[in-house]
Amino acid sequence: MNHLAHAWLAGDDDALRLGGMLGDFVHGQPDPAWYPPRVISGIRLHRAIDSYTDAHPEVLAAKACLPPPYRRYAGILLDMWFDHCLARSFTRWSRQPLAEYSAALRGLLRRRDALLTPALRRFRGYMEANDLPAGYADRAVLELALVGIGQRLSRANPLDSALPVLVAHEAELQRRFEAFFPQLQGFVQAWMAEHLG
What is the pLDDT along the chain (197 residues), one digit of tens a residue? Predict the structure, then answer.
């Protein structure tokens, strides 16, 4: 899952949500001298979500429907596409409008600037310039994000041409998302009950 899903799945707890955003930017064990315990829990939740997602049968089936050479990058592509699915149907999952949620998430990152890694601080600027995560509902924004990711990867890759492939498989990917996401919510609720008390 990508930024919108990680933040939203963390619920209304700002520390967990911040940890959800930091999850892609903090490597190794989070430093307890630097991060508050609840933020560390959010980072751990992010990693648990990623592990659950990567092994889920619906996600594996969605990856398998992508043709070579895109299948090799299916993890990245599905993370982005599933955020697109979530953004497009956000009112189904949340009472808060997507634009309002997105602005609040960026506001949280500004308020907690001292805890951000330099890379997340740079990404926050990208979020603000592209109205993310709300912008993920827009395919043009999604395509720009895929191109940007592809440019940051060290080896040649097809991410800059992936959007039409994803659109061509939209119906199946949507079915897979619809089957997977409620199960992911259940996993997150169980993880929180076990690890947060």
Answer: 899 999 999 999 999 999 999 999 999 999 999 999 999 999 999 999 999 999 999 999 999 999 999 999 999 999 999 999 999 999 999 999 999 999 999 999 999 999 999 999 999 999 999 999 999 999 999 999 999 999 999 999 999 999 999 999 999 999 999 999 999 999 999 999 999 96
Quote the number of domains for the chain: 1
- Whole-structure pTM value: 0.95
Q: Which domain holds residue 114?
A: 3-195
Long-range contacts from 171-179, C-beta under 8 angstroms, 24+ separation: 172/62, 172/65, 173/62, 173/65, 173/78, 173/81, 173/85, 174/85, 176/58, 176/59, 176/61, 176/62, 177/58, 177/62, 177/81, 177/82, 177/85, 177/86, 179/58
